[in-house]
Amino acid sequence: MEGAVVLLDFWPSMFGMRTRIALAEKGIKYEYREEDLRNKSDLLLQMNPVHKKIPVLIHNGKPVCESLIQVQYIDEVWNDRAPLLPSDPYKRAIARFWADFVDKKIYDLGSKVWKTKGEEQETAKKEFIESLKLLEGELGDKAYFGGENLGFVDVALIPFYSWFYAYEKCGNFSIEAECPKLIAWAKRCMQKESVAKSLPDKEKVYEFVLHLKKVYGIE
After folding, report:
1. What backbone torsions phi and psi does residue 6 show, to the nearest 5 degrees?
2. pLDDT surpassing 70 at residue 2
3. Where does the GST N-terminal domain start and stop, copy by copy (predicted)?
4. Element at 9 (helix H, strand E)
5. Start-end ranges of CATH 3.40.30.10 in the chain?
6. In which residue ranges of the chain is CATH 1.20.1050.10 found?
C-alpha cells in the first residue's frame, strides 16, 4: 500500500507538521519537498488547484489536501500500525470535534497574538488561554488526548507547541503559568521521535515570526 509518497510542505507550517508526524508514527518513507510560498511550484498548483496551499500529500500520484484530512487518510491507508483515531465511532467523533476546535480557535487566536498589539492583543491572549484551558480540561489526567498513546487530537495540536515560544515573546505572557498540564503533555509528546523530528526549533520559528512582522509592518 505504501507506493510513492510525496509531501509538499513549508517548514514552519503547523499544518504540514501534522502530516509529518502522522507519516513518522506510521513509519512511512516519503519524499519531502519544501515549497517557496512566494513562488509556488507548478506541482503545488496542479495538485491543489482549489486552495493552492501546502501541505499537499501525494500518494501514487494522487493528491490529498488539508492536513486533518491527510492525517485521517494516512490512518486509514496504513491501518495495520499505530492507530491515530479510535475504533469506537463515538470516540472517533469526539476526537474529530477537538481537532476541529484546534483548527477553528488555536491557529487564529495564536496568529492574533503576534499580529496585534494593545487592547486587541490582550483580548487575543485571553481568548487563546481560555481555548487552551478547554483543551487542558479535555486532556484531564490522560497521558495523551488519545489515552495511553498519541492520537488524532495530539497530532492536530502538538505542532502549535513549536510556535508557543513566539506567541509568548510577542505577547509577553507565559503559557506554562496558565496551562501547566498542557505544557507537561507537550513535553511528553516531544519525547516521541515522531514528534521531535517533525517540529522545528522554537527559536527558528520565533525568528520567522519576527521576519513576518517586518514584512507586514507590525512593530
Report:
1. -130, 140
2. no
3. 3-82
4. strand 5-9
5. 5-77
6. 89-216
